[in-house]
Design a protein that fits this description.
Layout lengths: L4 E6 L5 H12 L2 E3 L9 H6 L1 H25 L7 E3 L5 H9 L2 H15 L7 E6 L2 H11 L9 H17 L5 E5 L9 H11 L5 E5 L2 E2 L1
Parallel strand pairs: 1-3, 1-4, 2-3, 4-5, 5-6
Antiparallel strand pairs: 6-7
Helix pairs in contact: 3-4, 3-5, 4-7
Length: about 210
């Protein structure tokens, strides 16, 4: 039986939203997506991080908390739900973008919002080499992502790695999307579905095997 609340996570460009859509369709699940286009500060943040970091991060925090809270209130977790973000990862981004005083204030808000929010039953963590991520970001052509630098993506990937090493609080399926085509290859997608059924706390998809 598939987990009821599945989160697809990964660095910008890893393919979270595309994979989340496919999983939701396969599982007949409610789909919960981030709304970066609704954040009015994001474009300015990518151009000049120092001038908009706090506003951008706080907007994302409130947006993500509101989305998960509304699902909980509507009791949609009685069925399957697939999201392309994990609420707790918001703090990971904040740690990279905010100065110490702003982060201290942000952390107080985060703790209040996170107190009673549901946690996922399984996390699908998508990875890819830095050059692949940058090529995907360039190909999708979002105007506000044009200033995005490889150095920022590298720092973000390292932050994700630390977060996962410390334990994200849910069983993990890790997939290298440079090797696995979860959208275009039905066999690859079937391996992901099988991994979601695993009782292991960490499953890594590798060519030809689940380990």
């Amino acid at each position: 039986m598939k987990p009821s609340y599945i989160v697809v996570e990964g660095v910008i460009g890893a393919g979270k939203t595309t994979v989340a859509r496919k999983l939701a369709a396969a599982l007949d699940a409610t789909l919960l997506l981030e709304q970066p286009d609704d954040n009015p500060f994001l474009a300015r943040f990518y151009r000049d991080p120092g001038s908009a970091a706090f506003s951008t991060q706080l907007t994302f925090l409130l947006q993500r908390a509101g989305q998960v809270e509304r699902l909980q209130q509507r009791d949609l977790f009685s069925g399957h739900c697939v999201a392309d973000f994990m609420f707790e990862k918001d703090r990971l981004f904040a740690g990279l973008t905010l100065n110490s005083s702003d982060f201290a204030l942000y952390a107080q808000v985060f703790e209040r919002l996170a107190f009673e929010l549901p946690r996922p039953d399984r996390i699908v963590y998508l990875t890819a080499p830095l050059d692949v991520l940058m090529a995907r970001i360039a190909r999708r052509g979002r105007d506000y992502e044009i200033p995005l630098q490889a150095e920022y993506l590298e720092r973000l990937a390292q932050a994700y790695a630390r977060w996962l090493r410390d334990g994200p609080g849910a069983p993990l399926v890790e997939v290298d999307t440079a090797e696995y085509d979860l959208v275009g290859n039905p066999d690859d997608f079937s391996e992901l579905l099988a991994a979601l059924d695993s009782a292991e706390t960490l499953v890594r998809l590798t060519r030809g095997a689940l380990i």
